[in-house]
Amino acid sequence: MAEGISQNDSSKENSRLEAFLSNKINLAVVGLLFVGLFLLAFGAGMFLLRGSSKDDIKIISSEESASSKAGEIIVHVDGAVKNPGIYKLAADSRVNDAVVAAGGLSQDADSARINLAAKLSDGTKVYIPSHNDPVSSGSAGSVAGEVAASLININTATEAQLDSLPSIGPVTAQKIIASRPYSAKEELLSKKAVGSATYDKIKDLITVY
């Protein structure tokens, strides 16, 4: 009788052990499945991130950055415009672009004295005259809305600076440079660098030293 009870207890212990081991195995399998799914999702995310970074991220070199800055100029727009101030424009801008940036001409602007097609250079001050602004003596033929900052020294000015003067284009600017040096600005005429009509327009905007 005692032997039968002992065998029965041993059978129960074996059943409990098998159930315990079965639960452990099931938990281990579930854990491995979760780890596998996590690694799969992580790998897919890294793949997508790597692919998008190649398409979306652009590294700008120092040369590209410098060329971007070189393609801009800063000008001061004053006078008969709606919003006088300092503006950043493209390097090939004209007086008209500066006027547009400043909100356009005001009602009292004297448009007959403005050359909207004149080229601009960095550091230029564009002054738009009003009907109340007097025309200075000796400058009746000059065009308002041009460079109104410091006078341009024709002995040292660059082609771009000369090109900003009224009626001066790249060809005439090169002729002025080729005829240097000048001891007086009137030598622009004697050296035939410019004609008399052009000289009358620029004589109050240039200097020699």
From TrEMBL:
Occurrences of domain Soluble ligand binding (ranges): 74-128
Keywords: Membrane, Transmembrane, Transmembrane helix
Coiled-coil region: none
Transmembrane regions listed in the UniProt entry: 25-49
Pfam families: HHH_3, SLBB
One GO location term (cellular component): type II protein secretion system complex
SUPFAM superfamilies: RuvA domain 2-like
One Gene Ontology term from the biological process aspect of the record: protein secretion by the type II secretion system
InterPro entries recorded: Endo/Exo/Phosphatase_dom_1 (IPR051675), RuvA_2-like (IPR010994), Soluble_ligand-bd (IPR019554)
PANTHER family on file: ENDONUCLEASE/EXONUCLEASE/PHOSPHATASE FAMILY DOMAIN-CONTAINING PROTEIN 1, ENDONUCLEASE_EXONUCLEASE_PHOSPHATASE FAMILY DOMAIN-CONTAINING PROTEIN 1
Name of the molecule in the record: Soluble ligand binding domain-containing protein
Source species of the chain: Candidatus Curtissbacteria bacterium RIFCSPLOWO2_01_FULL_41_18
